[in-house]
UniProtKB/TrEMBL annotation:
It comes from Coniochaeta hoffmannii. The lineage of its organism: Eukaryota, Fungi, Dikarya, Ascomycota, Pezizomycotina. It comes from the Eukaryota. This is Di-copper centre-containing protein. Residues 1-17 form the signal peptide. One of its GO terms (molecular function) is oxidoreductase activity. PANTHER family: TYROSINASE (PTHR11474:SF116), TYROSINASE FAMILY MEMBER (PTHR11474). Keywords: Metal-binding, Signal. Residues 108-141 form the Tyrosinase copper-binding domain.
Amino acid sequence: MHLNLLTSLATLAAVLGTPLHVASDDDDGAAAAQLASIAQTAFNSTIEHVKGTIGNHGAAACDLSKLRVRREWNNLPRTEKRAYIKAVQCLQSKPAKTPASAAPGAKTRFDDFVATHINQTLTIHYTGNFLSWHRYYTWYYWDWGLTALTGLENSAIFDGSDTSLSGNGAYQGQRPDYVLGGSTGLPPLYLPAGTGGGCATSGPFKDMKVNLAPSLWTCLAVLSRVGAPALTSRTTPAASVVISTTIDDFQMEMKGIPGSGVLGVHGAGHHGFGGNSGNDLFSLHPAAAKTIAGTNTLLNNPVSQNTTLDDYIDFGYAAEPPRRIRDLLGTVEGPFCYTYADS
């Protein structure tokens, strides 16, 4: 599909928590055309915004000569994939900036990003700063719509080659369902066991050591991966791009309403490969959500003020000094100057 933000519009039923409808080929074709049109509209809006013809919210600092296009992983040339992998490995070779008093287990610069996310988990999820905060953790993006159609096991991201992010974890045999929640007064959500579960044995990150997650204390382990295709194919809220008019509605459809039995694309994506923020995939997955967020922002300009725009976002030891949410709402405003495309 052309820039398939999240597979089929026919999956609105999944968003609303009603029985899942499995789209036919005709449904997929119609959804692809609609999503392609939406994506093109958002792209065109970006260009006009940068030119200064739509609003005047700081876009003057971003012009067409500076505008960068962030592309879907599968459409990157092999040289760019290798460069990205090398950059991640570089972060894993540098010492951490986070003091031991804040995260005893942080050993590398890569761990700074993991520790910051762990430390702020309760204040950056299901909150008004969710999307703007995570925008600092993205670069390329992942077309989850394509993965939902082909399955995790067929994704080039997991083929174990030198341009992948390593393969699935070694198969650990039949395992019981994974139970999410159930201790907070909400009904438990039962997630099917994945096809892996053991250590990754191929690809650039097969020897990666995970120092953190889920806690801030040292938890040394090799990279493991679950690979749960059932999760990544059943939770696909594409319709959130066009029907959401508030940040609250938009984020709830993406993350899943607590107690509804629907994970949403954000949670399903993380749990689809283990749910660990120390995973090498962590910075690629949120970019899929932020691709949709960027499209939603551009299609609903000006942005709805359903949170305090003058609140500050703190990036801990991972990035720059705190910034106001107001400065992080658009991909061509504030410190940003980029858009998304599939090729």
